[in-house]
Amino acid sequence: MENQATRNRPARRREERWARLHGRLVIAAVAGCAVLGAALMLLPAERTVTRAPAPAPGAQALTAVAAGVPAALPDLAALIDEREAHLRRHPEDAESWAVLGTAYVEQGRRTADTAFYAKAEDSLRMSLKVRRSAPALGALATLANARRDFRTARTWGEEARQLEPKRWTTYPALIDAYTGLGDYKAARGALERLTRLRSGPAVRARAAAVYRDRGWREDAAAQLADAAAGAEAPAERAAYLEGAGQLAWERGDREDALRHFQEAVRIDPDQRAAQAGQGRALAALGRTTEALNAYRMALAKQPLPQYALELGELYEWLGLGQAARVQYDLLRATVERAAAGGADEQLVLGQFEADHGDPAAAVGRLRAEWRRQPGIAVADALGWALHRAGQDREALRYARIATDKAHGGGVRSALYAFHLGMTERELKQYAPARRHLQEALRINPYFSPVRVRAAREALAALGDVPDEPARG
Q: Which domains does the chain have, with CATH numbers?
């Protein structure tokens, strides 16, 4: 037995050594798992955590509305539904009434449905009834601008500024109001105040509009390019690209304008101003079928009288008189609907009447418009209506206001130069007429198919005339 036990002793020692080794391996494995777990916890978060979901559509629109920048139409609809539901439960929430009213204004502007303007006014006045605030007052100024009631916009905007002088979102509405009233000095002052309070894409876009009105087209283009590059939301970026396309169009760069308009529509398919811009650029490029389709698409979703006028004139230039008359009837109907919603579209109606209807009626409409809001666009339209009505001496006065840089008419417009030149020609002021007609074609050789042809014919008839010093 002893010999047997002696013989089994080495085997037992091997089993004990193996048990101790196995225990160490288990401990090491557990420790290794702990180290691995700690290491995994220390890995960069992006490897293990997915990206946060995008904000809800209503939240995106709320951010845009609060910043006074364009919002996507579906997001606006979501925000409106959300605020309407909230206000049914909490009718004393002044801030939500102001947000809802501002959203209605943007919805009306983007769709050309002036019924939203009445809803906006009701909501904003309800906000003021609960508590007087700069956001509601500023939104009422924006609403008045959308309706082309610039005097009322100035009143609301100045009251909002008095209440909260450092609230930057008030100043864009004031700039629009001052511009509509022809007070370009006040518009520049409001821009200076705005740029001291705020920077960023929205402010750059606003600066671009003021620079464009002063004739600083290159500066305006640079500001819009920076605004588009810095914009975060697609609808906002698309709006700035549309503005850049319009500047390119005004300088006669058809291809660049079309690229900007197409990119704007690609980013935001509801960007109807860019679709109408495509119509202009495509017509100038001779792609008339595409131009007609672009205008039709814009009008289907944003039936503005300006688009109907442009499409009608394109049809007329193509010799499609019946189709043109359909658009002119649509123009009249949209002006009437706008008036029912408190919006003033007498400027476009006067422009239409001067060229395609009753010039004397156009003069009456535009005189009244000039008394209400004496901006540069109204001066040009009234001057042209007077010319078409045979009152050229008075017409010349307004045509010069529209193009007089010393008094605010610094915008480089081929149409304005054409109107001035044609009026001078009728008054036998041949040298300045020739100079201004050449200027119109130099600014934008494609500004209007019908008017470009008229300008070329007038220049050919004038021939070589002695030059005269420009009048001061």
A: 68-198 (1.25.40.10), 364-462 (1.25.40.10)
